[in-house]
Amino acid sequence: YAAKQTGEPFRRWSLALDERTSQYAELGAQMRAGLDSGQFRVVYQPIVAVPDLRVVAVEALVRWEHPERGPISPVEFIPVAEQNGLIFELGEWILATACRQLAEWRTELGAPAPDRMSVNASARQLARPGFAKTVARTLAAAKLPADCLTIEMTETAVFQGGQAITTLHELRALGVLIALDDFGTGHSSLGLLQTVPVDILKVDKSFVDNITETGRHTVIARSLIQISEGLGLTAVAEGVETAEQAEALQQLGYRFLQGYYFGKPSTHPDFTLALDWAS
Ligand code: C2E
Ligand code: MG
Ligand code: MG
Ligand code: MG
């Protein structure tokens, strides 16, 4: 077996791995510089209530404008930040920026400002003791009440239990809400609901995509809203792209929707959708 590993397929695999590792390392190093020189920003996507289309919340999503490569997706760089540990600094910056932004909107706009800000937290952030303290400090610095904030996490971030679950209890004790992101795509979605403190289920885009055709997707989307209601949770449907999807979801009982149809993530989201609709 050892001899085989010197063969051509292994050599190619090994080179590919080296290249990947060095790309990772390079991106990681550039991320440090990017943080220091302001290449990151935060955009906000509306989460609307139906049928009145009030923007009840916005989700903060990080963006990286790389000087040579152009925009890089968080799907690509968040795992790198998780690996090299920069996720802590980046995550704190995102949280602080988002909290300051919501505080600003509240002051400037009054009632039309969204009620809450939703911020994604990665597995490593939740697994590090002290995260809830950081959140409390950040809210205080922005002079925001804790119930203005939702922390979104994926199933994989919490399914191992341990400190992440402790963190969630600490966040809840502060008054922060917890959302389970991409719900239904993990290994143990339903099982988690028995053990993890959660307030909001974000039903994954994959269940929304084909909802206008009758069949499996509709059955699953209907079951998910029923589970959510039965457990006293709030369901948010993600990735709504068409009026037909919005209509179908509303008929199934979904009251909170998010997706390009209502607004793409932007630095200046439109909080007056309801008015546009009526006109
Ligand atoms: P997510 O938290 O599930 O965020 C939703 C993603 O779906 C966002 O992609 C958003 O732009 C996209 N989206 C929203 N509506 C639609 C739609 O109607 N159609 C389509 N095709 N896409 C839609 P984005 O911003 O590229 O982020 C991807 C993922 O990266 C996020 O998924 C989240 O897991 C992660 N991420 C983004 N920002 C942060 C952050 O600040 N911190 C952490 N830890 N992760 C983040
Ligand atoms: Mg999210
Ligand atoms: Mg999501
Ligand atoms: Mg998603």
UniProtKB/TrEMBL annotation:
Coiled-coil regions listed in the entry: none
Domain of life: Bacteria
Domain EAL intervals: 24-279
Species for this entry: Paractinoplanes tereljensis
Annotated protein name in UniProt: Diguanylate cyclase/phosphodiesterase
